[in-house]
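Appendix C reproduces, verbatim, an entry submitted by the partner laboratory led by Prof. M.T., so that reviewers can inspect both the input and the predicted structure.
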Amino acid sequence: MICFVDEDIGSGNAYSIALKMRGHQVLILHDATEALEILPTAGDLDLVLLDVMLARGRDPQVYFEHRHTVNGLETGLVLLDLLVERKHSALVSKVVLLSAATNSGLVAQIRSKAKQHAVPYWKKDFRSASSFCEKLATHLGATASG
């Protein structure tokens, strides 16, 4: 199963539709609070695509307050840290950080966090849903053989 943690992804999104058409099950979580509650018990996840600039949720826990997430710019990074802190290493190993950030300071922070936790970082600059699926398939193939 492929999990999107991104408020901008819906079941009708081109990426989720393309993945379903290729035989993948897709789970969509729309905010950090929901992800922190559901991901650790979500079951058979092949990949977690975690948006860095992520919504906090309707009832955000203290970790996702704006003062901890740089006004929401780093909510996904805070979520990743919490998953590591709570010892969900098998889950963390399936995370790919996603961001459309162009601010050099934020991009540097994302790269640093990705390196710290040994997870990939992909820019959200896919030409099409098909090119996204190809990148995902390549990644899944590499992690399965590695």
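The longest helix spans residues 129-145. Additional entries are available on request from the coordinating office.
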